[in-house]
Automatic annotation (TrEMBL):
One of its GO terms (molecular function) is DNA-binding transcription factor activity. GO terms for cellular component: cytosol. Residues 1-59 form the HTH lysR-type domain. It comes from Treponema parvum. Belongs to the LysR transcriptional regulatory family. The keyword Mitochondrion does not apply. PANTHER family: HTH-TYPE TRANSCRIPTIONAL REGULATOR YBHD (PTHR30419), NITROGEN ASSIMILATION TRANSCRIPTIONAL ACTIVATOR-RELATED (PTHR30419:SF8). This is LysR family transcriptional regulator.
């Protein structure tokens, strides 16, 4: 599977049309794009798109594949940004967290950091512990904030503490 094929897939999913994706986004011919998607579906052994008269929609398998394809595309963008930066600190930091009372303190720390390093952006998502650990394991998140009840032994971690002992 090639990165180009993932980009083709994502363009069709976004445009909901093979013809529009081919002409307006990818600048390839519609038959070429259709052939690439047919080869991808054959490689995966599943149908990714449901074609109707008006739209090209994702199947359930296509929805799952889009999530993974988008994660890969985001990781590649971050990697490219890491190698095209100048001396100023810049990039995107991805944080996964489950809801907890102390997040406002983390938000304040992010605000303070952004005032010093304006070229750094943050991407924050909220989910349960499983979602956060899945993003950590796949490299999509740079770090996660988890409650102690999560199975964290496989990660490098710092205990933040409780409000009583000066933590969160």
């Amino acid at each position: 599977m090639e990165l180009r094929t993932l980009q083709y897939f994502l363009a069709i999913a976004q445009e909901e049309s093979i013809t529009k994706a081919a002409e307006n986004v990818l600048h390839v011919t519609q038959p070429t794009l259709s052939r690439q998607i047919a080869e991808l579906e054959a490689e995966l052994g599943t149908t990714l798109f449901m074609r109707t008269n008006k739209k090209t929609l994702l199947t359930d398998a296509g929805l799952r594949f889009r999530r993974h394809a988008q994660e890969i595309a985001d990781m590649i963008s971050r990697m490219q940004a890491d190698f095209t930066t100048d001396s100023e600190l810049q990039g995107k930091i991805s944080i996964g967290t489950s809801d907890f009372d102390g997040f406002s303190k983390i938000a304040k720390s992010i605000k303070d950091f952004r005032e010093k390093h304006t070229a750094v952006s943050f991407e924050i998502f909220s989910g349960n512990a499983f979602d956060v650990m899945e993003k950590l394991d796949s490299g999509v998140s740079d770090f996660g904030v988890l409650l102690e009840t999560a199975q964290i032994s496989r990660y490098d971690y710092i205990k933040l503490g409780t409000a009583e002992n000066g933590g969160f």
